[in-house]
Amino acid sequence: MNVKKRLISGLLLSLFLFCALLTPALAADGSTKTYVYNEYGEAVCAPSAYLCTRVLRGRDLGLGDFSKLTDLYVNGNVYLSDSGNNRIVVLSPEYELVRVISEVQESGAASALNSPSSVFLADGLLYICDTGNSRVVAVDSEDRVVKTFCKPASDLLTEDFAFKPSKVVVNRAGSVYIAASGVYQGLLHYESDGSFIEFFGANKVEVTAAVLLKSMWMNIFSDEQRESLIRTVPTEYAGIFIDSEDMIYTTTVTASTSQVKRLNASGENILMYPGSSTGFLQKGYDRNNFGDQILEYAKGSLRRSQIMDVTVDEDNVIAALDSSRGRVLLFDSEQNTLGIFGGSGTQDGCFTNASALAKNGGEYLVADGTRNSVTVFAPTEYMQNIRCALRAYDQGEYSESRAYWERVLESNAGLSVAAKGVGRALLLEGNFRDAMRYLKMGDDRYYYSMALTRYRREFLRENSLWLVPCVIVAAAAVCIGLRQLYLAILRSGKGREK
After folding, report:
1. Is 354 helix (H, G, I), strand (E, B) or coil?
2. Would you place residue 460 in the very low, low, confident or very high pLDDT band (cuts 50, 70, 90)?
3. How far apart, in whole angstroms, are the C-alpha atoms of residue 282 and residue 388?
4. pLDDT exceeding 70 applies to what percent of the chain?
């Protein structure tokens, strides 16, 4: 009987441990444990970067439940695209209700919004993606329509194409960029007056084994057989963001790498990290991969990261929203991971359908399109030290930057970017020997080579008084030794001749 009880107890304990491994671990503060990736693409534990401090729901604002939140936008106030309720909800920076926009004034009459999916504020005009009405409208402070952007006249779009704008941004020159569902040619670029200019920055077809195989068959098949094949087309953009320098960032959900792009004036991606291979040739940390480096399997199928939205702040920190796993991944300007927070689940701080991301001051906002809520994340002291280090380094305060990075290393010795930060600061301070030690810890080969070169030059300069005579003596000894060896060879040759 005791044997059976022990066996049952052992089985229950094993089952408990197995379930614990499958359940997201909780830290002492109630948040899910977080991690970062090192230079070898390995996930290492890290302190929490951001913590959930508040969850915003429509009923708490006296509006009834939100429905199908599709976008978040912050420009002084916080704008929520409550698409399922056909309205835009405007909150103050402190998340208090300011007003609700459910209709606009057009030609002296009220026109109801229909599934508005995104907004953008520029030059006093609020641009609204009125998706259900197949247009983008720009309204003034009294909600009067000033401009309208409709389906573009282009041979690349069929006559029966349904224009469904999903995201909109405007640069300082007044040019309007719109992402629309079913448009694979890139963003729609309009003049400020509403006239269509061009398609901008189309995605390229990702080369996969299936694409290569299809290309091979295309060269063999007849014209009729080619027509029957499903065509491979570029994927559409899921999110758009424009920074303070008018550079446009885009996200692509289905891409396996380079999910986030930064487009220049020609529509080319300039966020590619040089020298980083992709696909099966990739070894170690892929800096062009803005999702999780380690693949996950759910119910026997591969679950890739799907980057739905992106935002970039004044510290040049790139925040990418992974809707598949409900996580926000933070990267510096060199595309090193700084922190990862969030997760899949039903507890506060996790998501079932992360749909939008924005930054309000020092806090990140994440919308959940299924739970119909917005989660507010505040930075921990650990993340504040990282941001202070990045800011001080950019401002040329290298000693101050090093002090912050050293505090970060005390909290997380596995953060390679912190070791790099200390090493680079020491290098710029002229402490080449210690810089080499930290740069080696961070696997920063370029700056390690630079520190080694300068340390070698400094060593030779400081020790030239005794080093030069030693070199001269050593050279003389080598010359004498070679001369003696030469004479010995000559003598041995003459002895054989006799």
Report:
1. strand
2. confident
3. 32
4. 82
Q: How far apart are CA 390 and CA 403, in angstroms?
A: 11
Q: Please give the full DSSP string across 108-167, using - where no structure is assigned.
A: TEEEE--SEEEEEEETTEEEEEEGGGTEEEEE-TT-BEEEEE-----TTS-TT----EEE
Give the separation between CA 146 and CA 302, rounded to whole angstroms: 47
Single-letter amino acid, residue 262: R
Q: Which of 388, 311, 322 is nearest to 351 (CA)?
A: 322
The more confident residue out of 43 and 296 is 43
Q: Which residues of 291-319 are buried (b: 16+ CB within 10 A; e: fewer)?
A: bbbeeeeeeeeeebbbbbbbbbbebebbb
**Three-state secondary structure call for residue 485:** helix
Mean pLDDT of 166-186: 92
Using the structure block, give the residue that is written with the tokens 């599934």.
115
Closest CA to 261 of 244, 248, 279: 248
Residue in the block written with tokens 């001749």: 497
The CA-atom distances, in angstroms, between 77 and each of 67, 213, 320 are 20, 50, 22
Query: Which tokens hold the place of 304?
Result: 């890739």
Nearest to 311 by CA among 241, 239, 387, 390: 241
- Single-letter amino acid code for the residue at 394: D
Spell out the alpha helix ranges (H) of 52-121.
none
Strand partners, 127: 120, 138
pLDDT attached to residue 23 = 38
Rounded Cα distance, 354 and 317, in Å = 20
Residue 48: C-alpha distances to residues 362, 365, 441 (Å): 15, 16, 22
Which candidate, 164, 247, 236, places its Cα nearest to that of 149?
164
The pLDDT-based confidence of 376 (bands split at 50, 70, 90) is very high
pTM recorded for the entire structure: 0.81
Q: For residue 136, report the phi and psi dihedrals to the nearest 5 degrees.
A: -120, 130
Helix (H, G, I), strand (E, B) or coil at 211: helix
Burial of 230 (0-12, 13-18, 19+ CB in 10 A): exposed
Which token pair is 493? Answer: 């040759």
Summarize pLDDT for 22-76 with one digit per residue, the tens. 334 434 333 456 888 888 888 889 999 999 999 999 999 999 999 999 999 999 9
Q: Is residue 285 predicted with pLDDT exceeding 90?
A: no
pLDDT at 230: 46
Return the beta strands (E) in 252-391 as ranges: 260-263, 296-298, 301-303, 307-312, 318-322, 327-331, 337-342, 354-360, 363-368, 373-379
Element (H, E) at 190: strand 187-190
